[in-house]
Each structure stands twice: as C-alpha cells, then as structure tokens.
Write a structure and sequence with these properties.
CATH superfamily: Alpha/Beta hydrolase fold, catalytic domain
CATH topology: Rossmann fold
Radius of gyration: 19 Å
Number of strands: 12
Strand content: 15-25%
Helix content: 25-40%
Number of helices: 8
C-alpha cells in the first residue's frame, strides 16, 4: 500500500512534527486514471478527476423511448418486529419497491437492495433511472429494486446500530420483515438466489451492504459501496474496531466468498487529514479494503475520486450506470 510502510511510524512522525499534512492518504500506487468511470472489461484500482467540478455533473436521465418502471411506497412500523424496536422509542420506516416495466405477475425477479432509501436521494432517483435504461437496453436483467430507509428517523444512533454493527442481524431483519411485506405490497416475487441479488449503500449504508453479502453470502453476492464506512464506529466485544475488522481480519483470514464488489472513496472523505484517527480514516480504510480484496483474489473495481468529499453526489451521478453494469456483468439468466 502506498500510504505508509507502517501506520505506527507515520503517526509517530506526524505527532513529532506537530501538525498533519493537507493530504496523507494517496490513491493506491497501481490505480489507473479514467475519464468517466472504470472500463467494464477491467478490474482493480482506478482514479478519476472531475472535468470541471463534481457539482457540474448533470442529473442522470432516462433515455428516449425507455419505458418507466413503477414505484410502490409503504411504511413499516417498528412494532412489526422485535429486532429493532427503536433506541428512542417507536418509529416508522419508509420503503419503496421498484417494479420494472413489463413485469409479468408471478415471475421471480433478481433484486437490488438500496440502503438509506429516501424519495429525494440522488442515489435512489439515479438507480431507478439506471435500471429503467439498462433493463430496456438488455444490459441488465429485468430486476426489482428495494429502497429501505434506515430506522433512525432523525436519530443517527439508530441508523448506526443497524448499519455499522458487524453482524448478520440487519440482513436477517430485511429478509424476515421487509422482503415479505415488499412482495405483498408491490405484487412482485423476489428471487432467493444470492447470485441474482445485489445491494448498494453509501457511507455506513455501504458497510451494511458489504455485511449483508459477507454474513449472508447465500442471499447476496453483488455489492456497490460509495464512501464506505469500513472504520471503527460500532464496536463490539467480538469486533472492537467495528467495520475495520473486515480488512484487518475477516477478509484476510477467511475463505474467499462469492462477492463481486464495486467500491468508491473520495480523496477528502471523512477524517482524511486526521492521522490520529487511525481507525476512522475513510480513504485509508477503503485503500485497505481494496488491498485485502486483491490479496484474496476477489473480483472488484475500486475508484478513487479527486477534489471530492464524503459521498460525492456528482461521482454517483457519473458512475452508477457503470457500477451497476459491472457488478451484474457475470450474471446469466437461468434457462
């Protein structure tokens, strides 16, 4: 890894100097520069710069003559399950189901799950339009989308409990509570085949997405992560450094799983210039994730974006089409 030969040596030298540099984590040494997004035929490490600014990247648009899928919204009260009753009391969770145009009732569909669901979120509106376009162009299989709001309802600690805790619990909650309700409300059937299921998240939602594939690899194999929180947030007795455990121990010390992952981090992502926050530096954590995945032979694309911040919306708008097509490229429709 290009960052430093030894993290402890870096910390000691910076502390002795009395100040942190403006930028201390760099793109991985073998990262290849791209103009828009990584090429579909390549895996590995990449870097991208804005043509002007990321704010100038236009909203992703549905292409001419592409039919529009329908969206079904419903609410789930916290009383529907004892798994997440609410740190600050009862709450209501919003859920949206994307049903592709031309869906035939009773057909079993591949599934893409999105965390931090919100009707006005860039990632949600962009992903819906990406699915409309790529399904129509047969660059994606006909699939459903499931957009699930976190249970925070303005309470960050509830969201962190769900997303940042390193366990399979949140994936089990989705499978046992949300999916049956979504199928019923939208009149659609989701596959239970992990090869035909993907999950996407941003920040802590990205840690939740990877955790679903890691702990329930029979149900999820395709992952997209923007500014993934693979750092120490929710520690536990088993994993005191929280999601840092993925690249520190779990990936290096476990048998390779069936996971195909597209990852992103920004050069000025959270705590990028605070070396004293060793286990909470987002660029460092994502560099380590990529290195751990590479060492174990995983299929991944990892994009470093310059002149950008945490969950940079322009990067999402510019790259989500390629990310979706890349993680689904290996999927073959059952005959």
């Amino acid at each position: 890894m290009r960052v430093v030969p030894c993290a402890a040596m870096l910390l000691a030298s910076l502390c002795a100097a009395g100040a942190a540099p403006e930028m201390w984590v760099m793109p991985l040494a073998d990262a290849v520069a791209v103009e828009v997004a990584p090429p579909l035929e390549k895996a590995g490490n990449f870097l991208v710069s804005p043509r002007t600014t990321w704010a100038d990247v236009p909203a992703y648009q549905r292409r001419d003559s592409v039919p529009q899928g329908r969206l079904v919204h419903f609410e789930v009260p916290s009383t529907a399950s004892a798994m997440y009753p609410g740190i600050a009391g009862p709450y209501t969770r919003n859920v949206w189901v994307y049903v592709p145009a031309g869906y035939v009732a009773g057909t079993v569909l591949p599934l893409m799950v999105d965390h931090d669901g919100r009707a006005d979120a860039v990632i949600q509106t962009t992903l819906i339009t990406v699915m409309d376009n790529l399904i129509a162009e047969k660059r994606l299989p006909m699939m459903a989308g499931l957009f699930i709001a976190n249970g925070g309802d303005g309470r960050p600690s509830q969201r962190s409990l769900e997303y940042d805790t390193v366990s399979g619990k949140y994936g089990e909650y989705i499978e046992q509570v949300i999916i049956p309700l979504a199928e019923q409300q939208a009149g659609v059937r989701f596959t239970r085949d992990g090869n035909a299921r993907g999950v996407i998240g941003q920040s802590s939602g990205a840690a939740a997405a990877f955790g679903m594939a890691w702990f329930h690899n029979d149900l999820y194999t395709r992952v997209i992560s923007y500014s993934g929180t693979f750092v120490r947030v929710q520690g536990s007795e088993q994993h005191p450094r929280g999601a840092w455990a993925y690249h520190e121990k779990l990936i290096p010390e476990s048998e390779k799983k069936d996971i195909r992952i597209w990852m992103h981090v920004s050069d000025r992502d959270n705590d990028y210039n605070l070396p004293e926050q060793l286990y909470r530096n987002w660029p460092l954590a994502n560099n380590r994730m990529a290195a751990a995945l590479a060492a174990r032979g995983y299929e991944y694309q990892y994009l470093w974006s310059s002149d950008s911040g945490h969950v940079e919306r322009g990067v999402e708008r510019q790259t989500l089409e390629e990310a979706m097509e890349w993680i689904w490229e290996t999927y073959e429709v059952p005959r």
